[in-house]
Amino acid sequence: MAAYQPIDARKLTVPAQTQDRGFLNGVRTYYDKNTPRFVRSHQSAVAKAIHREVWGPGVRTEKEAFEYVNALVLRAISAGSAPLPSPMPVLDLGCGVGGTLFYLAARMPIAGIGVTLSPVGVRLAESLARENGLAGRCRFLEANYLELPDVGMRQAVYAIESFLHGPDPARFFRSAAAVIPRGGRLIVCDDFLVEGAEASRDRTARRNLADFRRGWHVGSLITTKQAEAYAETAGLRLIDNQDLTPYLRLRRPCDRLIATFVNVGRGLPFRSPWWDSWVGGHAIQRCLLTGLIRYHFLVFDKALAL
């Protein structure tokens, strides 16, 4: 096996089509239209999670599967190298309707801020915070995480299935690192390309990747090595990399039903945010099953001293 060669993040490029604000407008519209449906479809999960179920070790129920990544976040931010402030300043980049912040707030003292491009998401998150008596501990802002407003320094920052929606991974890591103090942590849980996947000449593989990018409005589909390089350039070091792909349940009955609809409707001349979610969801299933992408939980920290 060849020795590991560090990647120079300055030489990495982002596809030109994702470098404009029109891309982020598409992400905003996608979540404005789909978030109420996502929340309704996950009523059984107390935390109102709109990310994937992860059937990791010890998980027995759907609720536990939805909360598995939240539990990993809690464990990661509680094990930092610096003394933990109380309440802990936490920042959720791409917060959805606040499910992970609510999970953390129920288990530790936090001062949480969630940012999302979607004003619909902000309204739903604020409503849920009031319902759960957490409005004073969890607040939500409509903002672009690449251009953060003044949120102060945040001991723990995380992005769950939102990193790939950003059009510039270098700016993502710089923006996050700028609000993390020495000893703080950044967590990214998302889909990452497998080395060599982009070079595949298989037409079906290339179509699946293209459908995933288009359907789920993906701007930062990179490898974990590339993510590590961007993070290092921003002053963060990778300290944990967990591949959660084996714990995903693929090809469920609902996934097979969606696959049928997508394959039948592929040639029809219409698009909508809900249809995009189906196309992207089917494509990610195919990409995971064929080894083009993997679902990783990455933890970075900012060293106490340089």
Helix fraction bin? 25-40%
- The name of the CATH superfamily reads Vaccinia Virus protein VP39
Radius of gyration: 19 Å
CATH architecture label name: 3-Layer(aba) Sandwich
Number of domains in the coordinates?
1
Q: What would you call the shape?
A: globular
Q: What profile does the largest beta sheet have?
A: 7 strands, mixed
- Taking pLDDT < 50 over at least 5 consecutive residues as the criterion, the unreliable ranges are 1-19
- Give a count of the beta strands, DSSP E runs of length 2 or more: 7
Query: In angstroms, what separates the terminal alpha carbons?
Result: 31 Å
The count of helical stretches stands at 9
Into which percentage range does the β-strand content fall?
A: 15-25%
Instruction: Specify the structural class.
Output: alpha/beta
Encode the helix/strand succession as letters: HHEHEHEEHEHHEHHE
CATH topology: Rossmann fold
In short, what is this structure?
The protein is α/β, with parallel strands linked by helices and 306 residues long.
Task: Name the features.
306 residues, alpha/beta, Rossmann fold, seven-stranded mixed sheet, 9 helices, 7 strands, 39% helix, disordered N terminus
